[in-house]
Amino acid sequence: MMNKKVNNTYLLLITLVSAMGGLLFGYDWVVIGGAKPFYEAYFGVAGIPAMQGWLMGSAILGCLVGVTVPASLFLVTSFFIPESPRWLAIHNRYDEAERVLSNIGGKEHAKRELIEIKSLIESVNSKANYRLLLKGTTPKIILIGVVIAVFQQWCGINVIFNYAQEVFAAAGYGISDTLFNIVITGITSVFAAILGMYLVDRLGRRSMLLFGAAGLSVIYLLIGLCYWFHFTGIFMLILVVVAIACYATTLAPVVWVVLSEIFPARIRGMAMAVATFSLWTACFVLTYTFPLLNKGLGSYGTFWLYGIICVLGFIFIKTMLPETKGKSLEEIEKSF
């Protein structure tokens, strides 16, 4: 009986810890792969498939609990969101469209925007097909969208979440310290994302992407040097936290904002599908190749490679992506 009690207590403990991991870090970390290798090492269950399944099930349950409150708030507040003025105009509800636009920027703004929206309605209403993706300047815009989508993943920051155990172990941390470090990086990511939402309309999309690419390239250089010279401890943790803050403030949220703005209205749905597919394909490639790169190039070489990718991303954004801050979707479409 005593054995059974101890086992039940231990089972409750690992269930709560696993669920809290899902609650704090969310679906991506749990499902993509960051949670499983860490939990296996932390609880010593690498050779027990049943316990691994229990841990991951608990983590996913934590994810579901974590999204319940914000999802419920989103559902309730969605009833108070007005229809898009573009959708209203497309359906000939011009008075309602003008009223929504007036609430945003006043009557003069509403009249000016409605004229621009009407000028694009004909092209939006025309039947879209994939041949439109190959006409005029559209291929160039698609290329920009695909490249920045892929760059958001290939900048390499997600390996810190997905392979947190390996990254921190190589930096000299034990498994208990790694758990603390993962909590710190998760909290940093949340607050940095909030900061990014505040800054995106103040500093501009292009500026923030450039800052993110430049910042990560410098940080990866320093992380690689730390691995090269076998520096461990708090300095490495600081670099990792700064890298996550840089990414979560810039590339993580801003890429999605840019993708939603740059594509012409008549092919926006198709173009977003192409860019989103490219982004998640790049995520798969990044996750799959990190262990291979880490084995072949070492930790320092892998982060230096990601640094080179960030430099290339900086050059591409600097030369190819115009600033979209303060412009309507119609103005952005005309600028390409």
Task: Explain what this protein looks like in three dimensions.
It is globular, with a radius of gyration of 23 Å. Helix 5 crosses helix 6 (107-125). 82% of the residues lie in helices and 0% in strands. The model is unreliable at 1-6 (pLDDT under 50). The protein is mainly alpha-helical. It starts with a helix and ends with a helix. It contains 15 helices and no strands. The protein folds into three domains: 2-78; 85-125; 130-335, Growth Hormone, Chain: A (Up-down Bundle), CATH 1.20.1250. It has helices spanning 2-32, 35-43, 49-78, 85-90, 94-105, 107-125, 138-154, 158-162, 164-170, 175-203, 205-228, 234-249, 251-262, 268-320, 329-335.
What is the fold's blueprint, element by element?
Blueprint: H1 2-32, H2 35-43, H3 49-78, H4 85-90, H5 94-105, H6 107-125, H7 138-154, H8 158-162, H9 164-170, H10 175-203, H11 205-228, H12 234-249, H13 251-262, H14 268-320, H15 329-335
Helix pairs in contact: 1-2, 1-3, 2-3, 5-6, 7-13, 7-14, 9-10, 10-11, 10-12, 11-12, 11-13, 11-14, 12-13
Q: In summary, what is this structure?
A:
This protein is an all-alpha fold.
How many distinct beta strands? 0
Instruction: Profile the largest sheet.
Output: none
Parts with pLDDT < 50 across at least 5 consecutive residues:
1-6
CATH topology tier name of the largest domain: Growth Hormone, Chain: A
The number of domains is 3
Task: Report Rg.
Answer: 23 Å
| Strand residue percentage | under 5%
Mean pLDDT: 79
Assign the CATH architecture of the largest domain: Up-down Bundle
What is the molecular shape?
A: globular
| CATH homologous superfamily placement of the largest domain | MFS general substrate transporter like domains
Going by helix content, strand content and strand pairing, the class is mainly alpha
Could you give the order of the helices and strands?
HHHHHHHHHHHHHHH
Helix percentage: over 70%
Compute the separation of the termini in Å.
Answer: 73 Å
Separate helix tally? 15
Which CATH class of the largest domain is shown? Answer: Mainly Alpha
